[in-house]
Amino acid sequence: MLHDRVMIRVEKESGERRSTGGIVIPATVEQSNRLHWGEVRGVGHHVRTVKVGDRVLFHPEDQFVVEIQGEDYLVMRERDLHAIASERPEHGTGLYL
């Protein structure tokens, strides 16, 4: 990866979800502004915040998709990430968003 680019493997959705009220939401329902979690698989030299292996929250629309060995990855700028879930101890409490 070059510059401030991050390569992310998108986590597959489990299908059906449940609302907080217990209503089952089928996998076929699309939510337009839903953010997705993914795992960082590669970072460029100018990326400062994330490391390979971190889980990140992002919006999957309008990103570049690349296929490597039959698996799809997203390539985006570091500034397009919304949150990081990391267990690195140098950030105080451990897990943060």
TrEMBL record:
<comment type="similarity">
    <text>Belongs to the GroES chaperonin family.</text>
</comment>
<dbReference type="InterPro" id="IPR020818">
    <property type="entry name" value="Chaperonin_GroES"/>
</dbReference>
<keyword id="KW-0143">Chaperone</keyword>
<dbReference type="Pfam" id="PF00166">
    <property type="entry name" value="Cpn10"/>
</dbReference>
<dbReference type="InterPro" id="IPR011032">
    <property type="entry name" value="GroES-like_sf"/>
</dbReference>
<dbReference type="InterPro" id="IPR037124">
    <property type="entry name" value="Chaperonin_GroES_sf"/>
</dbReference>
<protein>
    <submittedName>
        <fullName>GroES family chaperonin</fullName>
    </submittedName>
</protein>
